[in-house]
Design a protein that fits this description.
Elements lengths: L4 E9 L16 H10 L1 H4 L9 E5 L1 H12 L5 H6 L8 H10 L5 H5 L3 H11 L11 H14 L4 H5 L1 H9 L5 H16 L1 H11 L2 E4 L8 H5 L4 H4 L13 H19 L5 E2 L8 H9 L4 E5 H8 L21 E5 L2 E8 L1 H10 L5 H18 L9 E7 L12 H12 L4 E3 L2 H7 L4 E3 L19 H23 L4 H14 L2 H6 L9 H18 L45 E4 L12 E8 L3 E8 L1 H4 L4 E9 L7 E2 L16 E2 L1 E8 L2 E2 L3 E6 L3 E5 L5 E4 L3 E6 L10 E10 L2 E6 L5 E4 L3
Parallel strand pairs: 1-2, 1-8, 1-9, 2-3, 4-5, 5-7, 6-10
Antiparallel strand pairs: 6-7, 11-12, 12-13, 13-22, 14-17, 14-23, 15-16, 17-18, 17-19, 19-20, 21-22, 23-24, 23-25
Helix pairs in contact: 1-11, 3-11, 8-11, 19-20, 22-23, 22-25, 23-25
Length: about 750
């Protein structure tokens, strides 16, 4: 008789807080879009497979955001633009649409829809595309198709109006676009009731996480990161606020009970991050079980899980055990996920035919089962715990074909029990006891994806300082209870894992600028709520906005320096740097785009400026020049810094500085300075520098004025400041360069 094997699927559903807690508007659309693509259709698929049980992890802050969309009719920037009359779109709106309304998997979400594909091809057919290349109707169609592409195909079979909208293909009206958003809200409104229904019938279990998804071990004690990485560079501030974790846990568990009527048995520790202190705290709060990564079990046991050439465990016995961690008599049931199986679903199977991929996963589970037949333990489990929303874009039909075939294979196999975690715990009455747990996460068995990188560390220091200021202000002043609670809410949001994940190396979301803006916004809100001055350093972005040019120069340039764009061809050969744009940046950034190029005699610059910002009292644009083989002196940048974030290009010393003063909308004559002894600067006479500002600021700088000979290379950066206090350096991590032709 074949020994039965339990298999637990645990799908983690999470998005960070994208809303401005002051204005209520959402800056990013991912909660709304994943809601119509993943959260509900994955659940509804189980109706076809009553023998398949699963566990879903719903983060409390995600549930809040779903409620906002379904009951409070909130908008994110994308949805607000979608329901805006295209005739009323500003230039910044159109720029935002062209930049962000093709954010979808090309193969599975754009290419299958010919009208959307043609708009995509027009947008990206060359580097010179501008907002004027598209008609109003094309903007309307882009707005419609971006939203349509994100619907899971399942909804086309359930919503006749949606199918009609897909079939229309083009010429979408404002009423069409409003209907698309209404259909999205309808789906979102049904998510929680359906989860309640499946929970009541016993086909699913729902677990949760601390409210805003913080890294529990690091909030309890940031120095625990040294246990897994002894040489890690920690922030200057020691973050150790166990009470914050207690608040986030208690509030998260209360939110869960308020919605689902029962207390959660299980907790998904954010990013599978665990430590002995974290598990003791969770046990004290009544948590019955958690799930974490196999790497943490390997470190705890002091052994590696060896896999063969195909990725199969040579001995799955330890990983497929039931465990109870017992630290100081604080007990908690712990499952360890099979990371190889989760990684196959997340990163590999989407590139294969759905049926072949499903068969492969099934055979791997059966291989594990065969290896466990002769063990002395009756109850083994394979745990597949993973992100439940971000993997499916790479699959045909959003993963539905893969999951249907997989569930069919599993449900027809009577030797497999596809179970919830709590159901498995009931029969695993003799779990193996561990008296400690390794401090680590699901990646590299350490915490280096959230702490240790210089930029991540600065973010931790900013969070620490803001929290300390909050405590100080509340102790020194009498504030209304509601105000204090709102201020603490901003701290708890800023403790979320996602901000630190995207800061620094190695991750790149493609939207790091917006994550940075949101993180600093939440910290700023603490001061605004308490009517205190916002520290200047919170105005400085921590991310590298412009590490690379959007386009490098590809020919000789000879523009007319008259302050207007005479033709599309005038700057067509120039390189340019595109700075993050959109409604949230309109009044925040002096420069929108920087063009640069040269001929044999001059370097040319064009600055597309933010007209609103120009009206401020005093702003400055600086260009710093570095000459590689120059024998003369060099001096450092002399713009005052507001914080301790020092970017690589600030560490260089430069040969020449050009300052362009701006006051109340007027551009004044550029001032050229040359480096002199003692790291100082001396004003240099200007011979033939020409500038003009009308709709754009154009500038020509003779190579001879900065001592560049034919064949010589010059490097440069651009900086902006307000009353000589640094606002931005562009780029922040390298220098731009060009060579004077012979």
């Amino acid at each position: 008789m074949v020994k039965k094997l339990s298999v637990a699927f645990i799908w983690h559903m999470h998005q960070p807080v994208y809303a401005s807690t002051i204005t209520g508007e959402y800056l990013m659309p991912w909660v709304r879009l994943h809601a119509i693509k993943d959260y509900l259709d994955m659940l509804m698929l189980l109706e076809e497979f009553p023998n398949i049980k699963q566990t879903f992890n719903l983060v409390p802050s995600l549930l809040d955001q779903l409620y906002d969309y379904s009951h409070n009719n909130v908008h994110d920037i994308h949805s607000r633009l979608t329901v805006t009359d295209v005739a009323k779109l500003s230039a910044e709106d159109k720029d935002f649409i062209l930049k962000y309304f093709f954010d979808a998997n090309y193969v599975n979400m754009i290419f299958p829809h010919e009208p959307y594909r043609k708009l995509y091809e027009k947008r990206f057919q060359n580097d010179h595309t501008t907002i004027d290349d598209f008609f109003d109707q094309e903007y309307a169609d882009i707005l419609a198709w971006f939203n349509l592409a994100w619907f899971d195909p399942y909804w086309r079979t359930k919503e006749p109006e949606l199918e009609k909208l897909y079939n229309k293909g083009s010429n979408y009206t404002l009423e069409d676009r409003k209907l698309i958003i209404e259909l999205q809200r309808k789906i979102i409104k049904d998510i929680v009731p359906k989860y309640k229904e499946f929970l009541k019938r016993g086909q699913i279990e729902i677990s949760t996480s601390p409210y805003y998804h913080p890294i529990i071990p690091l909030v309890i004690d940031s120095e625990c990161a040294t246990r897994a990485s002894s040489d890690i560079q920690l922030p200057a501030s020691h973050f150790n606020f166990v009470d914050d974790v207690k608040v986030q846990m208690k509030r998260g568990m209360k939110k869960f009970k308020d919605i689902f009527g029962i207390a959660p048995a299980g907790i998904w520790p954010s990013e599978h991050c665990v430590s002995p202190e974290a598990l003791e705290l969770l046990s004290d709060l009544g948590v019955k079980w958690i799930v974490t990564d196999e790497g943490n079990l390997a470190k705890t046991l002091g052994k590696d899980f060896v896999r063969d050439f195909y990725g199969n465990l040579q001995d799955p016995y330890d990983l497929c055990q039931a465990y109870q961690v017992d630290i100081n008599k604080k007990k908690i049931f712990t499952l360890f996920r099979n990371s190889a199986l989760g990684d196959l679903i997340a990163f590999e199977y989407g590139n294969q035919e759905s049926e072949i991929a499903a068969n492969d996963l099934y055979e791997r589970i059966k291989y594990i089962q065969a290896r466990l037949q002769v063990t002395p333990v009756d109850d083994h489990i394979v745990t597949i715990a993973m992100d439940g929303e971000n993997s499916w874009e790479s699959y045909k039909e959003d993963g539905r074909l893969f999951l249907k075939h997989l569930y069919k294979l599993l449900s027809e196999d009577e030797t497999l029990d596809i179970t919830t975690v709590s159901d498995f715990i009931k029969k695993a009455d003799e779990p193996k006891v561990l008296d400690t747990i390794h401090s680590g996460s699901w990646i590299n068995r350490n915490f280096s994806l959230w702490i240790g990188d210089p930029t991540k560390n600065i973010a931790w220091d900013y969070l620490y300082k803001t929290r300390e200021d909050l405590v100080k202000f509340v102790n020194e002043n009498k504030y209304p209870k509601e105000t204090v609670e709102k201020a603490w809410e901003e701290i708890y949001i800023a403790e979320g894992s996602d901000w630190f994940w995207w800061y620094g190396e190695p991750n790149d979301s493609g939207h790091d600028d917006m994550f940075d803006l949101l993180f600093r916004m939440h910290l700023k809100n603490v001061y605004k709520l308490l009517d205190k001055p916002v520290p200047d350093y919170l105005d400085i972005p921590l991310v590298l906005f412009a590490g690379e040019p959007s386009r490098c120069p590809d020919g000789i340039l000879k523009p007319s320096i008259n302050g207007v764009i005479d033709s599309d061809d005038e700057w067509a050969q120039a390189g340019y740097i595109e700075l993050p744009q959109g409604p949230m940046y309109q009044s925040d950034r002096l420069l929108r785009r920087i063009y640069f190029g040269n001929d044999s005699d001059n370097i040319y610059f064009r600055f597309d400026v933010n007209q609103d910002r120009m009206l401020g009292l005093t702003n400055e644009i600086y260009i710093y020049f570095y000459i590689l083989d120059r024998s003369g002196l060099l001096s450092p940048i002399r713009i005052r810094n507001k914080g301790n974030a020092l970017f690589p290009s600030q560490r260089y010393s430069y040969a020449y500085e050009m300052e362009i003063p701006i006051c109340q909308g007027n551009i004044f004559s550029p001032v050229l300075s040359e480096a002199i002894e003692g790291s100082l600067w001396m004003v240099k006479s200007i011979n033939n520098i020409v500038y003009s500002y009308k709709s754009v600021l154009e500038l020509s700088v003779p190579f001879t004025d900065i001592g560049i000979q034919q064949g010589q290379e010059v490097h440069f950066i651009v900086a902006t400041s307000k009353t000589h206090i640094l606002q931005e350096i562009i780029p922040q991590n390298k220098l731009l360069s060009m060579i004077r032709p012979h």
